[in-house]
Amino acid sequence: MIRCRDSPAPSDTFRRTESDAIQRTPTVPYHLVRERVELRFDARTVEVYHEGVRVAAHPRSHTRGRATTLTEHMPEKHRAVACWTPERIAGWAAKTGPETAALCRAIMAARPHPELGFRSCLGVLRLGDRYSPERLEAACSRALAAGGASYRSVRSILERGLDGAPLNDDLTPPVITHSNVRGGAYYD
After folding, report:
1. Among residues 32, 85, 86, 148, which one has the fewest Cβ atoms lying within 10 Å of its Cβ?
2. How many domains does the chain have?
């Protein structure tokens, strides 16, 4: 929990307000996430103190809704993921095939931030362990053709064995002939 103390700051250039601390939580080392810390900040800098010892200092961001997490404050596993890029995920997918890479690019493009699609893409790639890479490539091709660029679509195609079914390229509906169907000439 982040609390601002009412005691005076060591420097007159710093001010502390409860509302600013609640609206924009500064990044702290991950081992202090649920601990009480003291904030000291001015227009340009944020300092975080734990039990009187400064544990973090970084430039203050005035951009609303934008995270400014420092990598050294993340756990090791999060640091490994933080260096992933959409190109890296697409590269992993390309090892399975071009359709899998195209599907992963489509998943990431459909999100406001490509990073939000990483887990779905990794789920698609894991399906290649359960099913064969050839089946995964066929399922990705079918999902892209159907407009279902998602993990759930690919999983459903594989579970139902639709990856082996022929893909109907002609998606025009059949012409229905019936005495009750008037046809286009009726409206002319």
Report:
1. 85
2. 2
